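Feature request disguised as a bug report, sorry. It would help if multi-protein outputs had a clear separator. Right now it looks like this:
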Amino acid sequence: MNVISRDEAIKWIEEYISKKNLIKHMLATGACMKALARKFNEDENLWELAGLLHDIDYEKTVDNPERHGYISLEILKDKGLDNQIIFDAILAHCNKKPLEKNIEKAIYAVDPTTGFIVACALMHPSKSLDGLDLDFMIKRFKEKRFAAGASREQMKSIESLGISLEEFLEICLEAMRSIKDELEL
């Protein structure tokens, strides 16, 4: 059950992903997962890696979504990664396995949340993560047409881990602010 460094994960991402916004999504997901691991006293490195690597096959599976997740595991195994916890989290985020462990429930909720927070930041008068606040995000959350691709049900599923949507959004916002230079936001 090996793990790699964040820097190594980013090298792998850059090898397989060409779209800048997708790379930013993966970085944001990694940051949110790391922050949630801290909240739940879990392995921060492991959770961050799951978040970073969760969409490594996206460009290969965009036209074949039923393979999304499975190709990620093939890529990661070919790279020498052997970590069932990360593999299960990757499969869980795209509904390829039931949500059982905390890491699986967290990544499932985080995946749409990063895009939602980016959309909020871009719509906020400040056009940045720094200017964004919880009230603004909650108002946008209630608008079904705003960032319609970000499943509200999936985001709210974080409540299965015993935290409120509000606390979750604040944790993710702070996590994304911690890498705002990488996210260019």
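(second protein starts here, but nothing in the output says so)
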Amino acid sequence: MDLDVEVNPSGLDDEYLAGLNRSFGNWGDRSAFRWDFQREVGSRVADLMVLRDGGSIVAGSAVSYRTVRFGNGELLVGIMTGSWTLPEARGRGAFSAIIDESRRLLATRGGTVLIAFVTQDNASRRRLVAAGCLEVPTWYVASNAETPLPDHAPAVEPSPATIGELYRAHRRWQGEGTGAYVEYPSVGVWASQYVDRPLPVERLTAAGCTCLVERSATSDRVLWIDGTDPRAAVAALLARAIAAGRQLFVFAAQAGLASAGVDLGMVGKPGSIAVLDALEGVNGDPGRSSLPAEWRLQAGDRA
């Protein structure tokens, strides 16, 4: 179908949010919209796009920008954020158009690498693979009604750590591994990503690990784990969630963290970080880069 792409439209926030909620069931409210698409991160705000078919908005997406450290240098990376297509418009090329426009936008902003977080069975992943992406494995691990209560799980307590201490711990965690990671230039920028979110975030200590856990209406979502025994921390957080009648959700870019949840009886779903180069030749700059094949990320980095 012929699609008209409009970038950063004015006065369409409510219509865009309605499209997200219709596409995903219960995506979020205006506070989530502002946090995802209108928040400044390191002096940059996301670019928003809508796709029209005959004047009607049928799809939308955003590109959020982050500075990423990779090897001895840094890259401006675009993250495909909040991509949606209305049910009646699916299978007609909308997401392919979103990929093309996202790459173009990124290149015009001086960026070199576009990424998207997808599950293995997601239709969007197939379009990204067709576009030539590199795939970096990830996992989505969640408890359900059949997940057993862990044996002898340690207690979970509130953490006394300050925001500054958490920020420094995050920086240490990044330096202990290899791979590309998001650069947060200040404690304030880091806190805006990990702590000051639309949903409440708890600072917890579990099995000697400091954890940040975001609480939705029915689930505990692990944003960050720092410490020497994250497997024991997952067990502690799982026991706490089950006791409260809640689900525990863990996104993992490291296989060991994913296997910790699966070994405890949680359900694991494979996914990937889809990594694409920006377009060549925009504004006379080839803008090509070596694609990072390893990423050191936590769940809180994804938005």
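Even a blank line would do. Unrelated, but nice: The chain has two domains: 4-137+272-301, 142-269.
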